[in-house]
Amino acid sequence: MATASEFAWSKDFTIGLIGMGDMGRMYARRLANAGWRVMACDREEKFEELAKEFADNTNIQILRNGHLVSRASNYIIYSVEAAAIGRVVEQFGPSTRLGAIVGGQTSCKDPEIKAFESYLPSDVDIVSCHSLHGPNVDPRGQPLVLIKHRASDESFQKVESVLSCLNSTHVYLTAKEHDRITADTQAVTHAAFLSMGKAWHANRQFPWEEGSRYIGGIENVKINLMLRIYAQKWHVYAGLAILNPEAHKQIGQFARSSTELFYLMLEGRSDELRERVYKAKEKVFGAEGSPKWAERPLLKEELLDRFSLNKPSGEKGGGRGLPNNHLSLLAMVDCWSALGIVPYDHMICSTPLFRLWLGVAEHLFRTPGLLDECLRVGIEDKSFRRDDLQFAIAAAGWAECVSLRQFDTWRERFAVTQKFFEPRFKGAVEVGQAMIKAVLESEKE
Ligand SMILES: NC(=O)C1=CN([C@@H]2O[C@H](COP(=O)(O)OP(=O)(O)OC[C@H]3O[C@@H](n4cnc5c(N)ncnc54)[C@H](OP(=O)(O)O)[C@@H]3O)[C@@H](O)[C@H]2O)C=CC1
Ligand SMILES: O=C(O)C(=O)Cc1ccc(O)cc1
Fold first, then answer.
1. Ligand in nearest proximity to the CA of 137
2. What are phi and psi of 258, to 5 degrees?
3. CB atoms within 10 A of CB 150
4. Where does the Prephenate/arogenate dehydrogenase domain start and stop, copy by copy (predicted)?
5. Which residues sit with their C-beta closer than 6 Å to ligand 2?
6. What CATH class has 4-173?
7. What ranges do the domains of the chain cover?
């Protein structure tokens, strides 16, 4: 790990953090541990509490507001809600120290870059970043996007040197490329899990408590990741869907794919369903004999079997549950196909969640017999009709909300379902965390 002392210019180099929420705190701690001097703030009313929390960390100094951070720092990172970035940069941007470097850690770069261009003095360099993982994931080896938007080579190298202590894999993109890729990887993936949660909520079920209905590795991924998302702050997911101009098309297509495949199942149009799904398979995963997937599957189902919520931790998932038609996964692959997205092309810039979701999709499409069984169930078996109906309704609801840029409605939709699952978060979130950790470990093998 590169530390501050390894860089000759670093003696007087101070890093500023505006926004000390989950990501800001994670950055502050890791930068300080590497020896950097960090000056940080959150909203003024949180000053005392934050100062107390970081009192024993001599490398971190908490200041009252972003003006004080901006004027004292050489490299300032805004780590606030994506929807607030314009307002916050408008407020503190003019106080930026002469010749400083400024960047942001928001999940969507279009509003962030617009804010910087509008409100930062012209002598300030702009280098943005985005860690493609949550605050509780070990950043080592995870993608870290770096955007050299308006900066000298020297400023860019300084940012790279500072952030090298995260030991992430640096990915160099423009802001536009970043938003296009994360629309494909993050926004549409979240739409699937948000819709699952809504569907289970609408039918008032905790799926892992439903006897044999949701058992096995694929179901564990659905359930654990759905819970993981609903246990987080709403603004992260709303921001990267609503504010990313590239994401609306993807989320809209996902809703259309869900509805259209559901109609084919409902109306028993077996041949059309099969033809459509196999065509999507070929576009996304390659033709028979020349697949796009690697020789080694992205995921081992046996590994996922271990992380069931309805079994004591560590016990094996317990055989197979009711065969499921996996509408959410069929719709995901249909959506990728309709938009010409080859998900493997985005691995370099993927989140753990996306890799898991692609991993289960790949598993379904490459395991002999599984896809055909899924299509048969979709036509013949009515066990999942109610859930599928609610899933399609939910996907359409999220898509409409995003396309109309309805932040308040988005928050309300999220909050009621979060409340439904909240009594089960304790314990469940840990199982999900352990599952992600195991998958990340297995990626290294
Ligand atoms: N969570 C995640 O997994 C990831 C998030 N991101 C992105 O990082 C950014 C931060 O996310 P995260 O840390 O999770 O969110 P948090 O809500 O935990 O943190 C944002 C913090 O910024 C504070 N804030 C708002 N306005 C101001 C202001 N004027 N001055 C100082 N502080 C302010 C917020 O206060 P208040 O709550 O009072 O508004 C809050 O404490 C977001 O843009 C998100 O999209 C990126 C990668 C991963
Ligand atoms: O739960 C996960 O892994 C995520 O998807 C977390 C996440 C949220 C927002 C980001 O901008 C990056 C990563």
1. 2
2. -60, -45
3. 17
4. 13-295
5. 107, 132-134, 186, 228, 236, 240, 351-353
6. alpha beta
7. 4-173, 178-444
